[in-house]
Amino acid sequence: MLMMVTACGGGDDAGKGGKGGGKAEDTSASQAVVSVAPKDGADSVATSGVLKVSAEQGKLTTVKVSDPKGAEVEGKIAADGASWTPDQHLAAATKYKVHAVAEDSKGRESAKDTSFTTLVPQNTFIGQYTPEDGSTVGVGMPVSIHFTRGITDPEAVEKAIKVTSEPAVDIEGHWFGNDRLDFRPENYWASGTKVTVKLNLDGVEGRPGVYGKQAKTISFTIGRKQVSTVDASTHRMKVVRDDSEIKDIPISAGAPATTTYNGQMVISEKLKVTRMNGDTVGFGGEYDIKDVPHAMRLSTSGTFLHGNYWGSPGIFGSTNTSHGCVGLQDVRGAWSKKTPAAWFFDNSLIGDVVIVKNSKDKTIQPDNGLNGWNMSWAEWTE
Description:
5-stranded mixed beta sheet; 10% helix; 4-stranded antiparallel beta sheet; mainly beta; 4 helices; 382 residues; elongated
């Protein structure tokens, strides 16, 4: 009897509730459809221009593309939510996983998970860079990258290289030919600046069928500011550090028939002792000195600032006698630390600036060494 009453009472309440109760939960499937290209399981996929995620009858809310190490590919969902594309190229010979989610107009989600593998390149290139990772260099040091293959898509390659600094300044790249890319700010770096270079070349198609295979980050620090000015007419070099002159050194520049280039030059190499042979720079057998001391390279073509032990002490500060280099008094064997050449060698960094003026020669070409400072900012960024 009690069970019957309860059942009847319950039925009456249920009837009333059925007329005014809440909505039933919508358990129907999402109308959003997620599509991923390339197809799931694809291999030998191109590293650029192929990957795309899209949604129909809905908007993308999440797209994650990651490599086996969990590193994610950066990309953007379009404003209308209909598509996602990567910001840059993919690495070669890498398996990527894609996870994408979209919502329809009712907020119902639909997801898709796929994977694909990029191509294994048959021909590759790398960028040989300077300065070295972890080094401290002078204020004139550019980032210079020489590619092992000629580049026919410079835009793609330059986009894959990021040069930043702290404190931040505007840094721009400039191509010299098709195999060299240099980066510099408008003016010399400030002392203490930290510069970071990210080479994300892995997978970049630099020329048809030739792909980069390099993913590397390097950094270097700018040391104290030192700019030395060689006056070929007075035969002296003034060394200015942090805007104060610290040394005035007598020199001997290029002789009248073999003058020294004018312009801003950057020390790119330091050699305590080296051999200099006229055959290598177009002077035939005019000289072959096997033990030139305290040599600092200023150009690719063979301009050095170096010690000179073979010249009479009287030439320094009075006459120009060299084949285009800048000579400082020194001793054979580079054993003394008291000579002008030894002092300058010990007090110089790779990346320091040496300016030559009043020589009866032309200004050095910007690509002859690390000498892009001889271009105006407008020329550099054109």
